[in-house]
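Hi C.,

You asked whether I'd gotten around to modeling the 221-residue construct. I have! Everything is below, sequence then structure, no commentary in between.
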Amino acid sequence: MTTSGITGSGGSGGATTTSSSLTALSNNYELFLSILTTQIQNQDPLNPMESSQYTEQLVQYSSVEQQIKTNDQLGDLLSVMAATTASSYVSYLGTNVTAAGNTTSLKDGEAEWTYDTPEAGKARIEVRNNLGAVIFSEDADLSYGRNTYSWDGRTTAGSTAPDGEYTISIARYDANNRPTVPVATEISGTVDGIEFTSSGAVLQIGGVYVSASSVLSVNRD
């Protein structure tokens, strides 16, 4: 089993931004104190500046400083949470999962999908290769509920499709005898790799990639 390299944004960018913000705030704060001191030294003794004005400006600077520190701590917390989440997905390695999806692998003349239909009836089934071309199609009678559809790799032209990834579409015939009612499908297999992308964790099942969020069940036996 192999785990793909973990990719994604790290915490260094947030730390750099916080450091720059604190530096700028510090420089501005020193300038503010310098100006404030000059104002105090040169103010009209008969009409001095109210102390509340000094206090208000000092409070504003303090609030900005606290906000920057809070953002920095929040960034650290998010980094820890991301690392913990990534570690939890590693536990998928070697397990057999069932996930919502319509693409699976044909291997040694066998490919299987699970379908779930609330109503039995005739349906149009099409299998496409990785280029999107329909290489096999047939009408079949679906049974009510969850069942398995198996394909042996035989094409409509009578040849045998090579091993690889294939996508199925199942549509039940409607009251007007047209295949327009989509039927949900699922795939199953052993997780042998994980990739972390900007949109979340992706599990590798043979040559097929599925989002971790689409996993419906996990079997560790």
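If it helps when you're writing up: The chain has two helices and 13 strands.

Thanks,
B.
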